[in-house]
Amino acid sequence: MEFVIYEQKERVGIITINREKALNALNSAVLNELEQILDSIDTNEVRCLIITGAGEKSFVAGADIKEMLDLDKSGGEFFGKKGNDVFAKIENYVLPVVCAVNGYALGGGCELALSCDFRICSEKAIFGQPEVSLGIVPGFGGTQRLARAVGMGMAKQMIYTGRNIDAPEALRIGLVNAVYAQDELMPAAEKLAGIISKNAPIAVQKSKIAINSGSQLPINKGTEIETRLFGECFETNDRRAAMGAFVERRKDIEFFNS
Ligand code: DAK
After folding, report:
1. Domains and CATH numbers, the chain
2. Can you give the pLDDT at residue 76?
3. Residue 252's pLDDT is what?
4. How far is the CA of 108 from the centre of ligand 1 (A)?
5. Has 20 been annotated as catalytic?
6. CA neighbor of 121 nearest in space, from 188, 172, 54
7. What is the pLDDT of residue 36?
8. Which residue of 111, 119, 140, 179 shows the fewest CB atoms closer than 10 Å?
């Protein structure tokens, strides 16, 4: 692959957007490669993903403005659909996805981060949705996911003004869960993903489904989904083994994703 690197450390998969000379901007090739990698990961073997950007300056500085410059209406729709499809794939991916934002996360970069389960960032991270300054609306889910993440008022302020925010402000409004020094970001992301990857994978996956699908529903419908998924966990070997280990006071539990 030319623009996306994939590596695996134990049960954690690390995806790095690697187009540093354009600040990791998302062109069609990056989106295609990202999709191919997501499709090729062995989700039985890997238990958690991290998405980050190459270099020290930028996570992803948005969709590729140079590629978009000459798009007509149908080209714009095609490009937008590609991005939305890939981001929906991340949002609904069977594995949890941690975003490690190592610099600029602007426009499509902020939207990519928002499609992950949660975000941590470095002190250098800068977030923003500058699309209205380019004559477009956020088109990779930003109007929807940003409002769900930080509330409608703050999302509207960020989108209407196009103003960037820094890492402390992103932390204050709940866009990220934690801020780290630049060289501590990936170790922290790997540590978090490592903890997640040691838990019962089916239970983690079903928690993701319950939280994601419940967030669109009245609470009684959400708890119905939770109840169904809770019941399904009782059919798993991992649940039997973990509860058995607790009762027998054993701590040596290993989960087999079954
Ligand atoms: N696209 C293409 N190239 C980019 C880029 C981008 N978004 N951002 C940076 N680059 C390139 C620059 O052109 C430059 O390349 P060369 O000129 O050297 O060849 C290189 O990266 C380094 O950038 P700078 O020289 O500008 O670096 P600075 O440190 O001076 O500035 C910056 C860094 C991040 C402040 C600046 O590069 C910048 O403002 N970049 C643009 C940020 C931005 O506006 N991003 C939002 C893009 S709009 C759609 C769905 C979604 C979208 C669109 C349509 N549909 C449904 C159809 C999404 C839209 C967006 O994301």
Report:
1. 4-197 (3.90.226.10), 201-247 (1.10.12.10)
2. 87
3. 80
4. 10
5. no
6. 188
7. 98
8. 179
